[in-house]
Amino acid sequence: MHNKTIAELSQGLSAGEYSSTELTQDFLRRISTLDKKYNSFITLTPEQALAAAELADQSRAAGNAGAFAGIPMAHKDIFCTNGIKTTCASKILDNFIAPYDATVVEKFKLAGAVCLGKTNMDEFAMGSSNETSFYGPVRNPWDTDCVPGGSSGGSAAAVAARLAPGATATDTGGSIRQPAALCGVTGLKPTYGRVSRWGMIAFASSLDQAGPIAQTAEDCAMMLNVMAGFDVKDSTSIDRAVPDYSQDLNNSLEGLRIGLPKEFFTDGLDPAIAQCLQAAVREYEKLGATVTEISLPHSDLSVPVYYVIAPAECSSNLSRFDAVRYGYRCDDPQDLEDLYKRSRGEGFGREVKRRILVGTYALSEGYFDAYYLKAQKLRRLIKEDFVKAYDEVDVIMGPTSPSTTFKLGEKTTDPVSMYLADIFTISTNLAGLPGMSVPCGFVDNKPVGLHVIGNYFDEARLLNVAHRYQQVTDWHQQTPEGI
Amino acid sequence: MTIERTDVQNAAHLARIAIDENSIDEFTQDLANILALVDQMQAVNTDNIEPMAHPTDAVQRLRPDQVTEVNQREHFQALAPATENGLYLVPKVIE
User: Fold this and answer.
1) Across the interface, do B91 and A334 touch by the CB < 8 Å criterion?
2) What's the N-to-C CA distance of chain A in angstroms?
3) Residue A427 annotated in active site
4) ipTM of model
């Protein structure tokens, strides 16, 4: 059962082939035997899961269950879950039992989903390898000496190892798409404001967005149907009708205009990855798409701009961790300043401190104009490049990640080399556009992701574009050895 | 722009983060590398470009000034490191 997609499991539950209780027990058993190898979960919630499964079985029997009722899944540990430990993979929240549900969590509960547990991640979503977690790194199911990507490494690895058919994730600079690519699964970052951020622990508020990771685009559509929508509790949530994302999956791609930015296909791109992408583009041509070269002239500035804006916003957001209202407090504080400084110094990991310091520096007196204001201006140029490109094309394609998965420890000593892991995904966040990563091949048995970027609120088209590709390829169906 | 040990110490103070003496050099080097990456921005002329604070240039929504939340003080204070009589406790601030 564990290799089935959410869509298949939903049909199986409807047909009475198995109950949600059986499914849930199966996934819980898999996690307890296999996750020692991957460390993809921080917290397991078997009791709550089995209770939710029983409820779902009852509502299925009563004939009033929706498509998601009884489907096991997992939440990234960045989403607050009422009564359940919510850590953001940080020591500073190791003792934090969230007193409420995030809107995303509430929506999945209302849909009857069964939460198996909370997935591991980079601390406060800051990282591209899942190595900054207080709970230890996640290992990539394709090669356990390698990273799963990050920050949603636990969600991506759990889906790749078939420990859950789907998991929620968040993406500030690539944190859904890059781990999806490195683990050979499908991930979607929606348009900024499409999914509520309420109860999702903030990293960089003008960039953060939640989305699904699953085996297929069809499953991502089912998950986005649950997640998307206006939320009065999130001031940046956008009040706009939500389409049925499953409805247009099978639309023809005849006449689809694909843009390939010349800046993404330079000599610097790994030739083996470039080959996978070219093969994917040929599949799209067979499906009736036309391909043109486009230019995103400011894309080389996206990493520098991001590493001002994201740390600046993080330094402000993370000031809430003050050791007064909740979270870790140091022993025997001498005075209030000592309480703040030592609690935060001991509670935050190295990368989080690094980013808070960069952000604080960039926002401090005398540097604001040169860093933050400059970055905000360049952010507009980056966005305008995309707006111009979408006059000519419907979707933009490129690599999700400049490399396949890399060895644990390979980039931890050099923050800047780690930051470049998100070189192709960051501009999407800066512009606020939706983007997907779709499995499109392997290099040395390591998965490669195709990055598909859409226009604002064009998630249905992205899912359609990904789904049609998955109808004619089987990259997304391949599993690591032994899974 | 070059960054010195004192810049790191100053930022750490502003951010209220204790950093032990022997890791200041390492943080200084890390920050210098990150700022060197960031300094690529300075090569582009951005005169007359409006800074962008929000991806879709949205503005803050307003709502009627009405109480919408119920008081959950006990529920929230159950999470606090130290409380007394409904108050959060911190080391003495005023002598």
Assistant:
1) yes
2) 12
3) no
4) 0.96
